[in-house]
Amino acid sequence: MDTGTDEPRRALVALEMILSGDYLTPTLNGELYFNKPPLYNWLIAASFHLFGNYSSFALRFPMVVSLLLYGLTIYGLVKKHLGSRIAFAAALMLVTNTRILLYDSMLGLIDITFSWLTYSAFILVYHFDRKRNYWALFLTTYLITALGFMMKGLPSLVFQGLTLGAYFLYTKQFRKLFSPAHFAGIGLFLLIVGSYYLAYFDRNAISPDKIVSVLFDESAKRTVVKFGIKETLLHMLTFPFEMLYHYAPWMLLVVLLFRKGVFKRSQHTTPEGQPGEKPLITGQPFILFNAIVFLVNFVIYWSSPQVYARYLLMLLPLLFTVFAYVYYERTNPTDWRRRGWEYFMGFVLIVVTIGAWVPFFHPDTKTIPGLWWKCSVLFGVLAFIVYHYIRQPEHRLIILIAFLAMFRNGFNWLVIPPRLAHRQEYKDSSERIARQSLGKDLYGYKQTIGNDGQTDVNSFHIEVVRGEILRKTNQKLPNTLYIADSVSLGHESYQTLSEFNLFDRHPAKLVRF
């Protein structure tokens, strides 16, 4: 389990649903948790039940299925409008950009599943509009929006509102937003989301204002509302450049758009009466739709100073579809932009291939079992792919995808083992404390656990072993054990039974008063 992300929190909420038998009320250490609605936690809980354990594999299984479905969805929807070659490239660009390839594809987080749903809603707007089937358009997209809301809250509504508003305004169909079909879609959304919250409030005697406030704060806390104008302007200057490495190598294809008249209106004939060249973006309706939806939704993150790269995963296929189309259909193989990108990537591929031997010199990797054969195989396969990248310029984009796939294998062999060793420390020490406390009531004392999310990984492993929720308390009870740190203990009189580290190397003790 990754200790540096929200993955332990997702796991802990799902685990406590199972332990309590209450799937309507998300909790953390037994306290009500409002930050995210429960749908993704239901998926994790279902996966725990499916595999009969609380392993990292079971935790991440919903993400793996979602990523597979996401790629297939991109391929299926793009193929209808641009053909299989562009669809295949756009789908694989999503799966092999560095953010997903080396990070998000290994974590049991909400974002890939949420992004898959959100992207599907984007494209279905175009799909059903072309068919003039507005009942299907609004009902299906609001159904998906409701599912997205039940995972992540208000962002799904923002995406839906901006997409519908921008698209129908551009296509001069703004009146469609006041049609019975649209109100039916809104009604479906309210029915799904409202049904859950009616059941929630029936079980929990709390004010609806509390949940509304938390959901709004979750959406607004990373924006100009929280950080102010100065931080926002600085972020707007730097964020486009951050995207270049977060989503490399495909984001570097933006160089293909460095030309005049990118968004020039379609011109059917030249002044001489000859057929005019089709404009780069506006000349293809589906490409124009992808560009509009990307730009109008990108503004949300461009103007939000605290943004994680995974938050934009639903927007990447829109941009990658534009890149794949321009690369294959609108850029000559001899074009300086395409040649420049291909030559630069060729240089990077050669450097990375040589770097396959670096693990022999790094202290965290030089002791990995089988290092000789792993580095040798990695170097040999990467060198073989680089050879074909150089010799087959017409297939360089697909060959680059093959290189990235092999690079990910090397990453699994050489980078993940040292990470696992670090995370294992928290699992082992937490399970040791849990076993030592069996047969006694156990609490987290004061603010030792659950205060900032850092200790979720410890709570998860302790609850798995004990089979009960690790709650917090300020009281000192007889025949009870406590997990406490030096700040919580203060000048208390206590007996130390064991010592261990909470994440991140925060000293704590198992004590009795």
UniProtKB/TrEMBL annotation:
It is a multi-pass membrane protein. Keywords: Cell membrane, Glycosyltransferase, Membrane, Transferase, Transmembrane, Transmembrane helix. One of its GO terms (biological process) is response to iron(III) ion. It comes from Larkinella humicola. The lineage of its organism: Bacteria, Pseudomonadati, Bacteroidota, Cytophagia, Cytophagales. Residues 35-193 form the Glycosyltransferase RgtA/B/C/D-like domain. InterPro entries: LipidA_mod_glycosyltrf_83, RgtA/B/C-like. The keyword Plastid does not apply. One of its GO terms (molecular function) is pentosyltransferase activity. One of its GO terms (cellular component) is plasma membrane. This is Phospholipid carrier-dependent glycosyltransferase. Pfam families: PMT_2. The chain crosses the membrane at residues 57-78, 85-102, 108-127, 134-151, 157-174, 181-199, 243-259, 280-302, 308-328, 340-359, 371-390, 397-416. It is found in: Cell membrane.
